[in-house]
Amino acid sequence: MKRLFTLAISLMAVGALSAQQTDGGISETMLNEIRSSHTMTQADRAAHNAMAQTAIATLAINGDNLAMIDTHFSHRVKTEGITNQHQSGRCWLFTGLNVLRAEMIEKYDMSQMVFSHNYLFFYDQLEKCNLFLQAVIDTKHLKMDDRQVEWLFKNPLSDGGQFTGVSNLVMKYGVVPAEVMPENYQSNNTSQISNLISQKLREFGLKLREQKDRRAPVALKMEMLKEIYGMLVRAYGVPPTEFEWTRYDKSGKAVDTKTYTPQSFYKEYFGDLDLEQDYVMIMNDPTREYHKVYEIEYDRHVYDGQNWVYLNLPIDEVKALAIASIKDNAAMYFSCDVGKFLLSKKGTLDINNFDYASLLGVEFPMKKEERVRTFASGSSHAMTLIAVDLDENGEAKKWMVENSWGPQSGWKGNLIMTDEWFEEYMFRVVVNKKYIPAETLKLLEQKPTMLPSWDPMFAYEE
């Protein structure tokens, strides 16, 4: 009996194969079988009628989950004000500087503080241009169709980034208050000027590859950077090298007025805080081995800075570090796949916000590891992690981030996420070393595993 059953299954498999075109295409027999497998029900017709006129995301909103999440948080970092990156990919920069401003507001009893994003972004773009041009020089010996060279010319410049950019730029160029180098139309709308500079960089890259004399590209790169600098000045203005600034306390009373350089301003208000040495990027990437350190080639903003290095930890260990930081009133750089299950009107990130399964009649069962491995999910946006709500056992129920989409977006400019969403779509958090246990810090002593530039984790946050 068992042999007959096995034979029947084998014949069915052969039949299925014979129905398919030998070249892998859909044959007429296959198409008829596919068509006959589905009968249009009333539910199908209703879904079709609705989707013919309405966005899927609107139709999939879960009516049973419309009530607003409780906005009470047991632990919240003290910070004031909401920033707005407008139509730019600078979330990474806003997030990093928002971490610093929360510390400055608390330490100096200020009502608010905003740093100039335009100032550091100017140098970010200049440094990235140099990074590209020097990388072209470094890879001149490789063929144009080499994957590394191809990647460079596909990605000459971006307005996106991650925390390594913040740390390298701040430690090299300092910071200035927003009023010293304010935002303008181009800094709020970066795509067009970035595209034009990218076009120029590709042109320059070809010229550098054509140079036969080993010494010639260095001098030529200098002339190219001067031209790029002129484009940046026209778009964003001239970065200040010295300025006068008055600090006010929470009551609006002037405390002092001094003349600073961007570097002395940082030193004055942040002392010996070293963003390059005092902070660690923690990742939750289930596709790779935990408790290992990884490095991504060319994933940096400054050529003479550091590649992005991260420690990969299980999600429970990531949570513990984040909770310790928030309890001590320290905000964190945080990044996630923000577009997944975001209900903008409420400002919530909750996997129950949308019910795509009921609307489309199919399940979506992939786990986080499978989504990352198949490019279905990855870090896309950086925000500032400022709050957690703990239950009586010290377990997280929900989290809140300060966003950079303006005060009218989300919940008072913030986004609130359930702990379940945090587990599924959170990827990176930057933690001060003082909140990391000694045994975990010891893991950083291992030699990082180098990953290529095209690794999925290189996704710039925007």
Description:
There is one protein chain. With 462 residues, the protein is an alpha+beta fold. The protein has one domain (75-458): Alpha-Beta Complex (Cathepsin B, Chain A). Helix content is 41%, strand content 15%. The chain has helices at 2-19, 28-36, 42-51, 56-59, 91-107, 117-138, 147-154, 163-173, 185-188, 191-210, 216-236, 262-270, 315-327, 356-360, 368-373, 419-425, 438-441, and strands spanning 75-76, 243-248, 254-260, 279-283, 292-296, 308-312, 332-336, 342-343, 348-349, 381-390, 396-402, 414-418, 426-432, 449-451. The strands form 2 sheets. Strands 1, 4, 5, 6, 7, 8, 9, 10, 11, 12, 13 and 14 form a 12-stranded mixed sheet that branches. The protein has a two-stranded antiparallel sheet with strand order 2-3. α5 (91-107) crosses α8 (163-173), α6 runs antiparallel to α11 (216-236) and α10 (191-210) runs antiparallel to α11. The longest helix has 22 residues, at 117-138. It is globular, with a radius of gyration of 26 Å. It starts with a helix and ends in an 11-residue tail after the last strand.
